[in-house]
């Protein structure tokens, strides 16, 4: 039986504090005072009989009980939002909106094919595609701001409450401009890598651990000129206009390599391979338009995997 003391404002406030990891930021987004947010959280904790947050230095972090409750609170808000969207769509004659989180590796490679095929279905759905770091997208998926995330499989501790469907595997490459000195074949790539600027995935990036292990395994403990970035636009422009080396998922620079504006350094990076696929909430029930989009993503991924197999020298 649902405790009648738990109101919508309790769930909304709790999810926003959990998402922002800050009472102050949550208060700003909810347009209420910080004391009001604190009071609402305390009311919810009294109903549940557990602490949902605890102090962490100058900030706060969610407790084990809070993590458990977040899965259900997020699902409840998502169901309510979907219900409101469905009624609104029915009144206006529009289909339910579809909100997709896409990591950079699939944004330019899979999603254009998938969306092109999906539009031919003429569902009338409004589509929203968001890109960003994996942790940010998964948090938006958890609280119901996204319906699906397409990208690499996250670490096990981040997958609670989610399901993953493997589509294909992808490796990391070291991309450079055409004519880069390291393409001459007279120098050791790993021996000379530290003499060039190197663009690295950020520490929050899902491929960062793969990259670090790969570099250490090949004798590189550190890089003198290292630039962390999640900006594909910056990475592409900087590499094309300099001698920088971009360590990035193959899918991000696939089109650049195909048109010859960039080349992958001729080294074996197969040990950096990781699964790419669909991440959804385990309690999610896809609408018909969503199911159609998922199928077009699967088909696009199948085409990508087929091309990769045909081109692979391994």
Describe this structure in words.
- It is globular and about 75 Å long.
- α1 crosses α2 (23-30) and α6 packs across α12 (288-311).
- It is 44% helix and 19% strand.
- α9 links the parallel β8 and β9.
- It is of the alpha/beta class.
- It folds into three domains: 1-94, Arc Repressor Mutant, subunit A, CATH 1.10.10.10; 96-169 and 274-311, Periplasmic binding protein-like II (D-Maltodextrin-Binding Protein, domain 2); 172-272, 3-Layer(aba) Sandwich (D-Maltodextrin-Binding Protein, domain 2).
- It has a five-stranded mixed beta sheet, with helices on both faces. A five-stranded mixed beta sheet has the order 9-8-10-7-11. A two-stranded antiparallel ribbon has the order 1-2.
- It is built from twelve helices and twelve strands.
